[in-house]
Design a protein that fits this description.
Blueprint: H1 4-9, H2 15-24, H3 27-46, E1 54-56, H4 64-72, E2 77-78, H5 91-97, E3 108-109, E4 117-118, H6 128-139, H7 152-169, E5 173-177, H8 185-191, E6 196-201, H9 204-224, H10 226-234, H11 262-277, H12 281-284, E7 287-291, H13 292-297, H14 299-310, H15 333-350
Helix pairs in contact: 3-7, 7-8, 9-10, 9-11, 11-15
Length: about 350
């Protein structure tokens, strides 16, 4: 099976593939698949010790995918991949069931159009399927996504999922890239008090411009291929595109505000990063802020800091390149000044 970007690029799912995904992403089927997976593999997975998990989370378009791969390439981390679709909550069961039909596809550029290529074995942001399945009614509404403290049963189930993914890939530590985790950092730390939370950020105006550009692109791709739009919604990607919902946090724009303006995305930048800076002490102690612009300018020093924070040996980071600059017009001066002030605080935390 291809990734959703293969669909948009013309490689495509067959009709049978699309039907299977629609069935598998049904909430009842997700719950059943997870229950069966826990019953079959839960005990052996939980019996295996694992090191501190790492969660890459923040606002999209700040190098989260590149940081995910930098860490994953260390060989120490297990992470969900597109090969685990369409049953990401049953990674061991699906791996066994699909073994005979396993095949590979050539790496191709993802639908973001940013030059990053992936294949079925690339680590990816699939974890949100779990939270949508277990907690979706508590944080997803028609207009917003809400901060939430996961219920104790959900926290326990998440510990099991992490153990199951580690067992599936036979690696000691878990690695996640999930921007929606900014809504539940307290729950992540409750599940894993030794977790490392990595928050990459960029220059606010440039990151907001990248979000606006990506939103326009994703909307167009979703209109051209409704299945792709459904796929991204099933994965819980509400950052941009046809399924976009702003976070219901102080300073974020209302869902009724026009999304085709730079101020909308700059307001989201301001609100999300203020939320990250204002976390309680138990979360703050686990946070590692990464200035992605500085990381690209001086890869060796930045990679060394990430390696020290996560306790793993990492590559040199020689492949890191600064994102393309966007020309921006029509931004509110007061809003930009607020964002710049927050950016200064982030830079200080990153040091």
């Amino acid at each position: 099976m291809s990734s959703p970007d293969g669909v948009s690029a013309g490689g495509g799912y067959s009709r049978a593939d699309r039907l299977l995904h629609r069935l598998a992403m049904n909430p009842a089927v997700l719950d059943l698949s997870f229950d069966l997976e826990r019953a079959r593999y839960g005990a052996v997975a939980r019996a295996r010790d694992g090191g501190a998990p790492v969660f890459v989370t923040g606002l999209a378009r700040a190098g989260t995918t590149i940081l995910l791969r930098l860490l994953h390439d260390s060989g120490q981390f297990a992470s969900l991949t597109y090969r685990d679709m369409p049953f990401p909550l049953a990674p061991n069961s699906w791996q066994k069931m699909s073994r005979r039909s396993r095949h590979d596809v050539a790496a191709q550029e993802r639908g973001h159009g940013d030059g990053i290529a992936h294949d079925l074995d690339s680590p990816e942001a699939i974890e949100e399927v779990f939270w949508r399945s277990t907690e979706g009614k508590r944080y997803i509404t028609r207009s917003h996504v809400h901060p939430h403290e996961p219920l104790p049963d959900s926290v326990d189930a998440f510990r099991d999922l992490v153990a199951l993914v580690r067992h599936r890939y036979d690696r000691p530590r878990y690695l996640s890239k999930n921007n929606a985790n900014v809504l539940r950092l307290g729950g992540i730390v409750a599940a894993f008090p030794d977790a490392v939370l990595i928050h990459p950020f960029r220059d606010p105006l440039q990151q907001a411009a990248s979000l606006l550009s990506q939103h326009r692109r994703s909307v167009a791709l979703g209109r051209a291929d409704p299945f792709r739009a459904s796929y991204m919604r099933w994965l819980g990607h509400y950052e941009f595109g046809r399924s976009h919902r702003p976070p219901l946090i102080p300073g974020a724009p209302a869902s009724s505000e026009p999304t085709d303006r730079i101020d909308y995305w700059l307001a989201i930048w301001r609100a999300v990063h203020r939320l990250l800076l204002d976390q309680p002490g138990e979360v703050r102690a686990r946070q590692v802020f990464v200035d992605y612009d500085a990381l690209c300018a001086q890869p060796a020093a930045g990679v060394a800091r990430i390696a020290a924070a996560t306790g793993v040996a990492l590559g040199s980071g020689d492949g890191l390149r600064p994102p393309s600059a966007h020309a921006v017009e029509g931004v509110s001066g007061d809003l930009l000044a607020e964002a710049r002030a927050i950016h200064s605080q982030l830079v200080a935390r990153a040091r």
